[in-house]
Design brief:
The complex is a heterotrimer of chains A (about 350), B (about 375) and C (about 290).
Chain A lengths: L1 H32 L4 H27 L6 H18 L7 H27 L4 H20 L2 E5 L2 E5 L13 E5 L4 E2 L7 H19 L2 H11 L1 H6 L4 H24 L4 E2 L3 H4 L1 H14 L4 H17 L7 H17 L1 H20 L1
Antiparallel strand pairs in A: 1-2, 1-3, 4-5
Helix pairs in contact in A: 1-6, 2-6, 2-9, 2-11, 2-12, 3-4, 3-5, 3-9, 4-9, 6-9, 7-9, 11-12
Chain B lengths: L1 H19 L10 E8 L6 H20 L7 E8 L4 H14 L3 E3 L4 H14 L2 E4 L5 H4 L5 E3 L4 H14 L5 E7 L3 H14 L5 E8 L8 H9 L4 E4 L3 H13 L5 E4 L21 E4 L8 H14 L5 H20 L7 H12 L4 E3 L2 E6 L5 E2 L3 E6 L2 E4 L2
Parallel strand pairs in B: 1-2, 1-3, 3-4, 4-5, 6-7, 6-8, 8-9, 9-10
Antiparallel strand pairs in B: 10-14, 11-12, 12-13, 14-15
Helix pairs in contact in B: 2-11, 3-4, 6-7, 11-12
Chain C lengths: L1 H30 L6 H18 L4 H24 L9 H22 L15 E3 L4 E3 L1 H23 L1 H11 L1 H6 L4 H26 L9 H14 L4 H21 L5 H15 L14
Antiparallel strand pairs in C: 1-2
Classes of the chains: A mainly alpha (about 350), B alpha/beta (about 375), C mainly alpha (about 290).
Chain lengths: ~350, ~375, ~290
Amino acid sequence: MKSLKNNKNLYNNLITIGIVVVGYILVTILSAAGVLSNLLQGLLVPLCAYIILAVSLNLTVGILGELSLGHAGFMCVGAFTSAFFSKCTQNTITFAPLRFLIALLIGAACAGVIGFLIGMPVLRLKGDYLAIVTLAFGEIIKNIVNVLFIGKDAKGFHFSMKDSLSLNLEEGGDVIINGAQGITGTPKDSNFTVGVILIILTLLIVLNLIHSRDGRAIMSIRDNLIAAESVGIHITKYKLMAFTISAALAGTAGVLYSHNLNSLMATPKNFGYNMSIMILVFVVLGGIGNIRGSVIAAVVLTLLPELLRGLNDYRMLIYSIVLIVMMLYNWAPNMIAFRKKLANRFSRKKEVA
Amino acid sequence: MKKKIMSLCLVLAMAAMTLAGCGGSSAGSDTFKIGGIGPTTGGAAVYGIAVRNAAELAIKEVNAAGGINGYQIEYKFEDDELDNEKSVNAYNTLKDWGMNMLIGSVTSGCCTAVAAESSNDNMFQLTPSGSSTDCTANNDNVFQVCFSDPNQGIGAAQYIGSNNLATKVAIIYDSSDVYSSGIYEKFVAEAANQPFEVVSTEAFTADSKTDFSVQLQKASDAGADLVFLPIYYTEASLILTQANTMGYAPKFFGCDGLDGILGVENFDTSLAEGVMLLTPFAADAEDAATQKFVSDYKAAYGDIPNQFAADAYDAIYIIKAAAEKADAKPSDSVADLGTKMEDAMRTITVDGLTGAAMSWDADGAVNKAPKAMQIINGNYSLIQ
Amino acid sequence: MSLLSYLINGISLGSVYAIIALGYTMVYGIAKMLNFAHGDVIMVGGYLIFTFVSTLNLPIPVGILLAVVLCTCLGITIEAIAYRPLRNAASSLAVLITAIGVSYFLQNVALIIFGANTKAFTSVVSTEPIKLFNEQITISGETIVTIISCVVIMTVLTLFVNKTKAGQAMLAVSEDKGAAQLMGINVNRTISLTFAIGSGLAAIAGMLLCSAYPSLTPYTGSMPGIKAFVAAVFGGIGSIPGALIGGIVLGIIEILGKAYISSQLADAIVFLVLILVLLIKPTGILGKKIQEKV
């Protein structure tokens, strides 16, 4: 009985990873055949980043059962720390994969540490209060990055929170993080293959966690905190564990994102609460707690606005309508009942035939 | 299970649709395909839409007059939502469409991100308004129509200094905006060499730009007799209103972002009386070219064009001049066309709405004379 | 002296947050949903009044009345189409996401109809500013009207909720939907009424926001909306007096933070204070503590 259940999990996990691998092979073949449009080629790495973000947020929202509206903040931390590292070492570490690997570790570690530090005081709040506090942290991170100036000259690093003039750089010094102007000239170290490897890693980490002893402890907190506590589950430890892993994975996505763009800035659009909400949309549309759903929803919702480009001015309007309709279709109890009825009728017809 | 299969099908269908985009790229080699990128939705939409419309207007004129080197122009404009990543997506979409040359991106950050991609293709790129030096630095294929941020910051400081407009200057800038913080830094650096003193520098951010009472109060407390506003006119209109409410009346001095303030619908223009700005364009200049542009634009799109529109309008004519000089043809490959256009850009001089005898240096930055304007009786007028 | 004037500026800004937060907290308290589209209904209210008063030249009271009525209808429609079908969904997050969809929708409709260009809102307030201490300190007419409106609305709402039958029904629905239904309360109608009141308030909030800060774009409502949400949480979300206190406190913190700490970090300061408040008092200043039982 037990092995069957484990096998079922394994089977499910394999399907999810299989979808990613098949997608990768398909895209690689198409790309080699030269039929892949520039748009899709350009979208591949961001897609990978969004998939990782969606999966990692699903860990917090779906598995831990806590609403976080600050996920973009962790992504921001990962993006900026790793881009900072890569830009500094652009000329010293010339082997790009090694540089990217170190950048990746730095980005994920920094985001994880920030996640841990934020999680410690915050995770004792519940529901909407936790949501607003995570939103607040995301905004604080964005705001601080926007006034952060770091420069480098012969004497070493200089740091300021005012403007690049107060760095007092010597002649020939280089401003690396230039406040709102962000980091320009990050080497383009990420590519689709790396992205897919990272997705698979993310999936392995999250899926393994879910089906482990720790994962069951985390889910028991979600389902009933008081009951979980009463059977001796260390609430804070497991909450923090899930939250930190989720943050570190978001940092990974940030690394991928920043090493795909030449100029990295923290705008409300990419690292503000708008982005956090967008990731949450992926998770909810794909199904809370459903990892495979997150992957699919991230792909659909990232491609959708690009596909609607033909509509010009009406693009974002139609996008919002599609979003509402998809939500109603997927979540409304009446719709679900209606779909079931329809499905039943279909299968009955089949039986008759 | 059914649902899962359905959603998978959805994904595949969508991917197929993006694939399908690449079909007709080599079809029309008898027209120039010019693409444009800028924000047409989101908070910066007003700038992207101005560029889109004005470039369209200019292209219609050029086409009606016989096109470039006898070839008509096709035009397509893509939205980037003021997001660097979306801007690169827009660039790739336009490449799928078969774009030969690019106007954009409208904003500095997006422009820099796109320039990194376009320089790989050696796609000729002319940005109407991406004013950061990062747009052009190290990218041979990128040129600007507008002044670069350092130019504006230094120009403004020198103008205030040499005309003895003030002894104590306060600055209010947007620290979350590339354009604004770029000008601010150069202004402060240059101010050290000028006979005035910067007494107060206060910032605001994209998330808190409704209330400016603190910034104004500090400027007032510091005794500033001139407030430098290297910001866009949307926020500036609020600053002017709030300064008026609190009874603070220093001189206000801005850069090209302030242009358009008189075009804000229903704005009490008396509040802007006396505001000075360093801008290459004013919608009610007396010359025939500007007047024709403004009336045509108004007839077609219903708004008074701002400086972004004027830059975009000029951009088309600059492309035309360079393409004629280079004897460019749509059948040239993107990279060859880029090389031809780049060589031509460094030799031509163009008279446009935003400057007479514009020429470009090796970096791709423009040389033109800034004009100082002052708002008098609800109109821009040139300060002699 | 400058401290006093900062405080007054803070109260002006805070009163605007407060009036937006009232609508937020009202809807949250009864329907238990974060209506992310509330800020955008405010924007719609602003545009409606702009159209009626500045474009069509209707008298100001008529314009306001029409805008309130239309916003009320808009609120009811949004609730019926986008929120009601999801009320019994498996997760309360579903309706949060549709609210975001509605928010995008309203912004883009406004963008298409009114264009992206800023419109300068003519203040509908004609009250003279009060000048104190030899005209060193000015309290604008908008501030006075906003604060008075806040207090009036707060009082009326509190009375309405506590003294009328419909208000009692709202309270019952917010406590326990199922039990309320058993008691013969029409839950759908009660929640519709909540959205109607919330959206009508949004029109008034839009008018006061745009009168105090006269610049109107399709995105005018989104950031004040978020700030007001923060204010509502500050004060204890669901609590009507809490919204007023939360709004004013938030405004004062924002202004003082800008004035005495750093204008670049104003947002970070506001949010940091919010976090501290919630860590000390997890349900906000006036929030009720709910004991959870197994």
